[in-house]
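Long-time lurker, first post.

We've been arguing in lab meeting about whether magnesium ion would sit comfortably in this protein at all. Half the group thinks yes, half thinks no, and nobody has a model to point at. So I'm putting the question to the forum: if I give you the sequence and the SMILES, can you give me back a predicted structure of the complex? Inputs are below. Any interpretation is welcome too.
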Amino acid sequence: MSNIVVQIGQCGNQVGFQLCDLLLNEIPVNCDTVFNQATRKARWIMVDSEPKVIGQVMTGKTTPLQTAMNPERMVYHMSGRGNNWAMGYLDAPMGGVSLHESTLEMVRREAESADYLRSILSISSLAGGTGSGLGSRVHEAIREEYPLIHLLACTIQPSSSGESPLQHYNSCFALSALLDSADTIFYFQNDEIMNTILANRQYDANVSMTNLNEYIACALYNLLYPERSRDLALANLVQNVSPSQDCKFVEVFTSPFLFEKQPTLPFETQWATLVENCIGQHTKFEDPRAKNFEVLSIAASATYRGRDVLPDAEMPKKQFKSKLRTYFKPVSFLSSCQLADTMVTERPYNLKFRIERSITIASTRTGVILPIKRTYESAYAKFNAGAYLHWYTKYNCGRDEFLQTFEKIQGLVDTYEQLGMYSEGQRRSTNCVNELFDSLQRQSQEEREVTVRDWVPRKEREYLAGSVQRRK
Ligand SMILES: Nc1nc2c(ncn2[C@@H]2O[C@H](COP(=O)(O)OP(=O)(O)OP(=O)(O)O)[C@@H](O)[C@H]2O)c(=O)[nH]1
Ligand SMILES: [Mg+2]
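Top reply:
Settle the argument with this. Predicted structure of the protein with magnesium ion, as tokens:
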């Protein structure tokens, strides 16, 4: 079973290259999930509106990464999209060829060479014109062409200090498109990763974009490729952590991770410390400004890797689970957060870096809405002031598009906020619970290979089904 990676825009390409570079140390080249067995090249598609970032890897000095990349899988034009979602989305053809069509053609070729294409992972930022705008177009096109495939989107939220005045608009548009197209959204925030690195690096050094990308690469690698010889750990993952169309944002934290290719914890660090460290990353930077909002969890999935993890050992599993339960408090319609675990009896990060154990936790939590809401509020305030709209209208993106997008993001914020507003001792049948249930039901009617919901306990399901009946 194969997975194709589509890296889009500067950020997407830089993160994607870093992930592939890491996998080259870890995954054998005969692994069909990552490498095309005919060409021995990674199943990676490089997409950008300008050639600079792709060129840095693909031209010049030969490196293992360059060798692993397929030069026939490059898609680029000659100038960037100016941090403008609308310009990226419009995707004006150059020489009669648009970037999203060329990308789809590359995906098609790669898919045809795979025995069984299981999933596509896209990587892009929410802010840049290419990553957000062209990314939205590519996601839509992939979803239309491959309705049954798992479309996983790794998306990177820009720093809240703001590098571009258009980033809030771009993020809203890109998130709105992802809500329609992606099955699971791995949501990384540059600010949060920066804080995690500052708190964990072993020595004082400046933290660069490359370091942020190294963290994201470690998180994705540990989460998606836990067993070197096996397929992408996808079916379970999607099932465990993306419960519905509305709640598909997944945060991923990993411990230890690599900083400048060095592990952030000593090699013999014990499980208990690792669990603490990883949970610490989840809880440390929660937003004190969010009043009446408790970060609650729907589901979490932990991957333990180490030669002393026994796949069937009940004791450590129970210990870990009870520890995680105290941190991941459940949303009101679940009696406890759904916890899944994967035990892998392999040392993480191969022999090159001597690390005995690692833990990676992916979680669906209500707190993810806080940075999204801040982004949305900034965008809405700018929109009300009429700021920067001409940059969008000139690329066919008018007020109606803004309003539709805002409506969708507002709906998302409402859903998560209702899940996050928890009154102690009260188990409520709120609209949002009903909506969540409806969307779960809708999803199970679709012929997706993995329809989720097995984990919603029967009692809860019956209760929810009853409340849906009552509403009708
Ligand atoms: N984590 C991370 N963030 C990045 C990286 N490169 C850029 N960013 C962030 O991504 C946003 C800008 O997106 P880019 O990917 O540079 O833009 P693009 O998709 O190439 O789009 P245009 O250049 O506007 O055509 C900014 O918020 C940057 O901080 C990177 O390598 N890693
Ligand atoms: Mg760019």
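For your lab meeting: Confidence is low (pLDDT under 50) at residues 422-433, 443-472. Residues 9-11, 14-15, 49, 80-83, 125, 127-131, 156, 158-159, 163, 190, 209, 212-213 surround guanosine-5'-triphosphate (ligand 1) (CB under 6 Å). Whichever side wins, do check it experimentally.
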